[in-house]
Every structure is written in C-alpha cells, then in structure tokens.
C-alpha cells in the first residue's frame, strides 16, 4: 500500500481525479479500521484466555485447599483413634478382666452360682459396650475413608484400603480377646492372659506403620498437585 501511494505521489496532481483520492483515502481508512478491529479482537482473546486461566487457577486452588482439609481431618481422626486405643489392653481390657475375675472368684469361693452368673453377665455387658463404642468409631472412620477415596491418588487409595482392613481387624480381635478372658477365668488358666494382648499390639503396630506410609503418600500427592 505504501508503494502504491509513493507511485501515485509522483504523478502530476491533475492526472489524479478527485474520486481516486477518495478511493485511496477510503482504502486507508478500511485498513486502519481492520487493524483496530484485529487489535481489539486480539485483546478480547487475550482477556478471555487470562480470565479462563484465572478461573482454572482458582478452581485448582479450591480443590487443593479441599484436599488439604480432607487429608488433615482424616489424619487427625486417625491419630486420635490410635492414641485412644494404643493402650487398650492395659487401660481397658485388664481392668475389666481384673474386676470380673475378682467378682467371679469371690462367687466361686462362696459357691454362689448366682453371683458367678451375675459377674459373667456384667462382663459380657461391658464387652458389648466396648464393642458398640468401637463399632461407632469404625463407622465414622469408614465414612471419612469413603469420602477420601473419591479424590485420592492410587497409592493413597491402596493405603486407605489397608488401614480400613486393619480397623475392622482391630475391632474383631478386641472382641475375640475379651471373650477369651472369660474362658481363661472359667478354666483358671491365668498364664494365658500374658498372650492375650500380643495380637492387639501387633495390629496396632501395623496400623501405625500404615499411618506413616499414608502421611508420606499425602505429602507427595500435595507437592505434585
């Protein structure tokens, strides 16, 4: 366009009719309008892209914050569960067994079968109470685990499933061990009491190991987000 204008500028003024001047002026105006339109369209595309990127960043930020909150709540509940139950054998089972054994032995010495039955029923009721409390905790943890599984990475998902199995195993073992205490009292095989807590402690150690693995997996997941 500049070349054409330069050539036209070399022509005598009278050789260029007025309408040609208007034509070239109009063409220049059209080119300018096209340039402005292109610039405006480019600006619009840029702002739309920027807005879209901001929305995506905001979405990712909210998802990240949600994951952090979910992980934090679950880990806090997991730690609280472990702290509550890490010494169950010493703080819960043995005191109940000691009380039951004392009542039962006193009834047995007095040959009071009614008192012995009452002691056994009392202990069975305590076992049921402890089992119900454990089941309620387990349901809460299962609910949190199910929610966490929806957005968890594959390695975290595997650990969560293993922890869930250990929760259930801990509840089953607890009930079994407490029932064994009744059999031990009836058979008076008190040496067997020494071995009652071993399986519970083993499950507790496995749960602690899986909890540590979960913490490391969560850190990797958040750092890679």
Entry summary:
About 90% of the residues lie in helices and about 0% in strands. The chain is mainly α and about 220 residues long.
Describe the structure.
This protein is an all-alpha fold and 225 residues long. The protein has two domains: 2-50, no CATH class; 65-223. The chain contains six helices and no strands. The chain has helices spanning 2-10, 18-85, 88-109, 113-149, 154-187, 193-223. Helix 5 runs antiparallel to helix 6. The chain crosses the membrane at residues 20-38. Keywords: Membrane, Transmembrane, Transmembrane helix.
What order do the helices and strands follow?
Answer: HHHHHH
Rg, nearest Å: 39 Å
Total separate domains = 2
Assembly type: single chain
Proportion of residues in helical segments: over 70%
Individual helix count: 6
Uncertain runs with pLDDT below 50, 5 residues or more? none
Distance between the termini: 53 Å
Mean pLDDT: 78
Main β-sheet description = none
The beta-strand count equals 0
Report the portion of residues in β strands.
under 5%
- C-alpha geometry: rod-shaped
- Structural class computed from helices and strand pairing: mainly alpha
Write the layout of secondary structure elements.
Elements: H1 2-10, H2 18-85, H3 88-109, H4 113-149, H5 154-187, H6 193-223
Helix pairs in contact: 2-4, 2-6, 3-4, 3-5, 4-5, 5-6
């Amino acid at each position: 366009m500049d070349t054409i204008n330069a050539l036209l500028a070399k022509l005598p003024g009278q050789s260029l009719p007025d309408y040609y001047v208007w034509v070239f002026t109009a063409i220049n105006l059209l080119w300018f309008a096209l340039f402005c339109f292109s610039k405006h369209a480019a600006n619009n595309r840029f702002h739309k892209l920027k807005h879209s990127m901001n929305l995506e960043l905001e979405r990712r930020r909210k998802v990240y914050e949600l994951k952090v909150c979910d992980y934090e709540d679950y880990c806090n509940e997991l730690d609280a569960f472990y702290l509550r139950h890490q010494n169950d054998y010493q703080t819960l089972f043995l005191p109940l067994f000691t009380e039951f054994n004392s009542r039962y032995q006193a009834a047995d010495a007095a040959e009071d079968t009614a008192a012995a039955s009452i002691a056994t029923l009392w202990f069975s009721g305590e076992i049921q109470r402890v089992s119900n409390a454990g089941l309620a905790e387990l349901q809460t943890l299962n609910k949190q685990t199910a929610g966490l599984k929806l957005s968890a990475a594959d390695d975290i998902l595997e650990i969560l499933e293993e922890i869930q199995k250990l929760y259930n195993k801990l509840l089953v073992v607890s009930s079994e061990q407490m029932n064994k205490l009744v059999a031990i009292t009836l058979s008076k095989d008190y040496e067997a009491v020494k071995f009652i807590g071993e399986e519970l402690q083993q499950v507790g150690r496995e749960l602690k190991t899986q909890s540590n693995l979960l913490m490391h997996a969560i850190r990797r997941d958040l750092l890679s987000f």
